[in-house]
Write a structure and sequence with these properties.
The structure is a homodimer. Chain A is mostly helical and about 325 residues long. The first copy, chain A, has one domain: Farnesyl Diphosphate Synthase. Chain A is built from 16 helices and 2 strands. Chain A has a two-stranded antiparallel sheet. The longest helix of chain A is centred in the middle third of the chain and has 28 residues. At the A-B interface, helix 4, helix 6 and helix 7 of A face helix 4, helix 6 and helix 7 of B. Chains A, B: Belongs to the FPP/GGPP synthase family.
């Protein structure tokens, strides 16, 4: 099943890109070059790439949230840029921490420019995010961003911790993914509503929308990490199993009371790198425990909760449709 | 020559420590443990260490700057804590980037807890610094901090860049050290003055004081990196030459018009790791070019400029004496 980004979301990209470019333009040239490459704007030689750039899902969420509360998207731009910068700060550091050599079918920054450059580029984007939002002059918005960054770091820290632990519970794994992914998506929607001038209840409802959407997004990501084909995801097939990552479906499978779970736990206890046969067997075992079906169902529940949160805000029809499409994209995407 | 930290500076530590502990206490337990170790509060097993902790030079500067403009030190505490957190964020990431295995005679965080933990701990401290200062509610202060962080990252980026370049000018090397070190010390003093309620001219004069003091501090650090004994600096002897670091004295030596410089350039062009004999020869060559004497003189000039900037503020006698002692400590220290 392939899903493309809805038109309204693409429309927000036309606003976000120049604002993001303006922010990145304030970095010194060497850093700008690295960041431009990471963001897909330029190739390895620093030359412009046609149609480069990521999905920009978080900025779209911020701008649509502003419109959902009846504002124009423009006031939400600093929020949109800030969350995209934070997202990319975390990708740059994540790739170093996980030792990932490819992202979006290209060498990762640390692989191409070295680990120090990737660490510094991440640091620069985090600082830039704070600066961009600070310039909007809304202290609640600034606090919202730093709280989300804090949760993000906590989530990544828990993720690392899980690697070294024999058992991880499904609930704590969901909490980890809430920190790692959903918090920044909640923040994106909250920032849009805040900068759009909305009051507490609407900000909070849109935050709920973003958080549930983020959880749905992450669970789909987890499923793609087990099932996704490398030609579309840009990651090696069965990538998460290969490194014995403890994502939600894996944790659900490991903790299920089945014979398949027992065999899977055996694979997770081993020290050596799993062979191709091992990895395929592990995928089959996860499937047999029913964990994939359970995760798909859980993702749909998060999406339903997101839709319910949105209904409370009662956005204009066009924006409601765009957010509904965005939601569909999140669960139906294959990359 | 050994210099100890002046009493007034130690007195500021009594105020800063609990505030710093309160800030760190808001981190989640796993992160708190890593940060506590890094700050010297606990040992490798997480047990409290008597009299641990670094020099806390930057917080002292912030609190003394507030007192220099006639305020109490307490309002400057968020600034003092924020600069110390930023300083430690940069140390954590620096140790990863430089591959340094020891700091203050103990294994570095990446060495003990792994690179991912060190990267995340640095990210957490940077975020915490922004949060702590944001809570003080002074937007000029918040901007001052993010600008300093930006300069710090630019300085570190230039430092990395220099490693790969055949020639580096003395002026651009001084600019790099201004970014890497002096900007945060300027920021510490500015934050103290700002949070102490001072007006523009006093903030700016104290910023000048901090910047010049920071440059003096860094040049002394560069000299210690060439001359310092490992038992006091906690770094291997001739550490900077061993890794062919392009610090100011080295750059001054390399660019001098002497026979020693030509031989030194030859050492810097080589690919292989220098032998013990090589490193000692390199140190002798740097000395022979007159670069060490030049750097010492330059450091003294920065200190004189710092003193002149301070005179313009006309601080109370006790605070003036404390800042003078702090200044003396910076240039006379041997670690």
């Amino acid at each position: 099943m392939t899903a493309t980004m809805p038109t309204e979301v693409s429309a927000t990209q036309a606003l976000v890109r120049p604002a993001l470019r303006d922010a990145v333009a304030t970095l010194e040239p060497a850093m700008r070059r690295i960041v431009g490459y990471h963001l897909g704007w330029t190739d390895e030689r620093g030359e412009a790439v046609e149609g480069g750039g990521g999905k920009a899902l978080r900025p779209a969420l911020a701008l649509l949230a502003a419109q959902a509360v009846g504002a124009r998207p423009e006031p939400a731009l600093p929020g949109a840029v800030a969350v995209e910068l934070v997202h990319n700060f975390s990708l740059l550091h994540d790739d170093v921490m996980d030792g990932d050599t490819e992202r979006r079918h290209r060498p990762t920054v640390w692989r191409l420019f070295g680990t120090p450059a990737a660490i510094l580029a991440g640091d620069a984007l985090l600082t830039l995010a704070v600066e961009v939002l600070d310039a909007a002059g809304d202290r609640t918005a600034s606090r919202c961003l730093t709280t989300a960054v804090r949760r993000l770091i906590e989530g990544q820290s828990a993720d690392l911790d899980f690697e070294h632990r024999a058992t991880v519970g499904v609930e704590e794994c969901l909490r980890m993914e809430d920190g790692k992914t959903a918090s920044l998506m909640a923040c994106a929607a909250e920032l849009g509503a805040l900068l759009g001038g909305a009051g507490g209840p609407a900000v909070s409802a849109l935050g709920d929308f973003g958080r549930n959407l983020g959880m749905g997004f992450q669970l789909v990501d987890d499923l793609l990490g087990i099932l996704g084909a490398p030609e579309v995801t840009g990651k090696p097939v069965l990538a998460d199993l290969r490194v014995r990552k403890k994502s939600v479906p894996v944790v659900a499978a490991l903790s299920s009371d089945t014979g398949s779970a027992a065999e899977l736990r055996e694979f997770y206890r081993r020290e050596q790198v799993p062979s191709e046969t091992d990895v395929r067997r592990m995928a089959a075992l996860v499937e047999q425990t029913g964990a994939l079906t359970w995760t798909r169902r859980r993702a749909r529940r998060y999406v339903a909760d997101a839709e319910a949160a949105l209904a409370a805000v009662d956005p204009p029809a066009g924006i409601r449709a765009a957010l509904a499409e965005l939601t569909r994209f999140v669960v139906e995407r294959d990359r």
